[in-house]
Amino acid sequence: MKKLSRFLLLTCFSFFSCGESKQDDILEIPVDIDQNISLPLSDIVEELITVELELTDESLINPDRIKRVLLDENHIIITEMEKILVFNKKGKFVRAIGSRGQGPGEYTGIRSIAMGEKNRRLFVISSSKIICYDLDGNCLRESKTDPGWSVTDMNYINDELLLVTEQYSRKDEKGLFNHSAVYRLNDELQIKDSCTIRKTYFERTGLYIHPHEDFILYRNPTVSLYFSDLYHNMQNPAETVLRDTLYRLEKNNLIPALKLKFKNNGIDGSGNKFIQLFNMYRSTRYVFAVYRNDLNNNFYRFCYDTKTGKGYNMQDGYTDDINNIEKRKSIRPLNTDAEIFYYWHTHMNPNDLEEPNPTLYIGKLKK
Length: 367
Prior knowledge:
The structure is a single chain. With 367 residues, the protein is mostly beta strands. It contains no helices and 30 strands. It has strands at residues 7-8, 27-30, 45-52, 66-71, 75-80, 84-88, 93-97, 99-100, 106-107, 112-116, 121-125, 129-134, 139-144, 150-157, 160-172, 175-185, 191-202, 216-219, 222-225, 245-250, 253-261, 275-282, 286-293, 298-305, 310-314, 318-320, 325-329, 332-334, 337-345, 359-365. The strands form 8 sheets. The protein has a 6-stranded mixed sheet with strand order 1-18-19-20-21-2, with no helix packed on it. The chain is globular, with a radius of gyration of 20 Å.
């Protein structure tokens, strides 16, 4: 599958030391939060591939714990919270990479993972270190991370490892703050450069970490990073600005690309933010988002077709009318190619004595 460029999606608050630009003449997309439909995948998919993942004693997959799927020319890599499994393109299990533990080349848990296709490297963020493996499973090097970092996402772009980090409960003369940044690392895991995204001050500390990822995506020929309400202060509701703008990053400048328009800008009559926008990205044709509506406490998926000008707001996800799967599905982008998405579904047959591995579905979007 053709590798496309990177497109950084970023929502805005506080300040951007990378250089903020005017939001003039950008695409504004309305989101009808009262709508609840399901979009058939056949409407947006050009091609859909089905991969049955082999079940062995070593390759058991728990769909609820999958963190990311990576693809290269020959492999499918399924990453859970505590293991990395490599399959070939037909779904046959090849090997596990690394193992749980405290020793060299071991991880206590996996926060994020990225892959360099050209150099055949896997980069894994564990609780306190970055580990680099080759695709044969050999540990090539590892490096301790800053103890104050919380890495929320990473991607390997243009021969660099990009990390989105949050440093929270820091203090300076103005008070307590969270500091969000992008770091660029080389293959030796050394920091080459960094860029502040925002610095947010609070009266008292309080954290909420939401379960969404996929903030650094690659869509040719730009790098795109989206930074949402990964962390917000639960004891101080003053953060009522909805981060609703998608940016692209060009030479350390954040350029507004598009804006999602919610009812009343996502603020209720009491001045509280009732829209929590968790995730947003763009392919060539479509804009996707995940948000929660606190008025009914439901999660929604949103898709906007820039070609037709139609938006689709979905509480329960997309309808797989191609494979006739009854349950609606949530799709995730391939972080190395925003034109590709994936999802999975576990098919149980009446004669199955044990639950099989989930089936992986890989789709290519229309343009």
